[in-house]
Amino acid sequence: MQTTSFRGFFRIGLVASAAAVASAVLGNAASAAVRADVSYGVPAGARTPSARGCAVVYFDLGETLVHTAADSGISYLPGAAAYLRTLRERHIKVGLITNVPSSWGKTDAERAAALKKEVDGAWKGPAPFAWADFGDRILTPRTEAERKPAPVLWKRAQAAAHGCRLVYEGETAKETYVAASLGYVAYQVGRPYRPAYFPARVVEWLAYGSRGRA
Fold first, then answer.
1. What is the Cα–Cα distance from 18 to 34, expressed in whole angstroms?
2. Residue 50 burial by CB count (10 A; 0-12/13-18/19+): exposed, middle or buried?
3. Most distant CA atoms of the chain, gap in Å
4. Which of 63, 129, 180, 187 has the fewest CB atoms inside 10 Å of its own CB, making it the most exposed?
5. Taking each helix axis from N to C terminus, what angle separates 173-181 and 18-26, rounded to the nearest 10 degrees?
6. Signal sequence span per UniProt (predicted)?
7. Per-residue model confidence (pLDDT) at position 196
8. What is the pLDDT at residue 52?
9. Are 39 and 50 in contact (CB under 8 A)?
10. How far, in Å, CA of 38 to CA of 201, rounded?
11. In terms of DSSP H, where are the helices of 27-172?
């Protein structure tokens, strides 16, 4: 039985620079990718790939893709729906790495179904949330000890990546730091004077250098 509201599990984002995090942990390649986002471009001399390599963009949910308000329900954050549509059009896979109560189910599928019910039940907006884009790539804690910022969920995503490059986008500096330390290209959303989300063209550039194939 669901006794805890999904919205109660969202946290307020911490202030930090995702560019500095990626530079410190991932080195020059990630640093170049994060710097390139300022102009929505790719590093000098790089060519945007068409069908080579692969990348998967994982997101936190609350205050990353959707806003949760106790009085007005749940809705897309500005730019989120358009960004997901852009990734879809470029055939870039997406997933969720998000905290929900472990009591919501015994499997990821069961917990994802409970999450969808919570979100859809409070949803406000002209279009529903794009659950179909995420497929079975919705990772949630099996135990309370697995809750982020514990690294377990990011490691589970890595195990299923088959060599694809991984990007993580979230609103808290602590989570982006953990993701970067595990080899993700991490991007903190909601920062002033920066793109709302990690540019899709840069994701394609990252995919070009991956070992895997979508």
1. 8
2. exposed
3. 55
4. 63
5. 20
6. 1-32
7. 97
8. 60
9. no
10. 12
11. 28-36, 80-89, 108-121, 152-159
pTM (2 decimals)? 0.79
- Helix residue ranges, H only, the chain: 18-26, 28-36, 80-89, 108-121, 152-159, 173-181, 200-208
Between the CA of residue 75 and those of 121, 157, 170, what are the distances in Å? Answer: 11, 26, 16
Residue 78 DSSP class: T
Omega cis (within 30) before 126: no
Amino acid at 141: P
Domains of the chain in start order, with CATH, are: 6-208 (3.40.50.1000)
The whole-number mean pLDDT for each consecutive block of 10 residues of the chain, a chain of 214 residues, reads 43 31 36 36 45 86 91 90 97 97 97 97 93 97 97 97 95 98 97 96 88 54
Q: What pLDDT, on the 0 to 100 scale, is given for residue 26?
A: 38
Read off φ and ψ for residue 35, nearest 5 degrees: -65, -35
Q: What is the C-alpha to C-alpha distance for residues 37 and 65, in angstroms, rounded to an integer?
A: 18
| R_g of the chain, CA atoms, integer Å | 16
Look-up of token digits 């709302």: 196
Q: Report which residue type is found at 38.
A: V
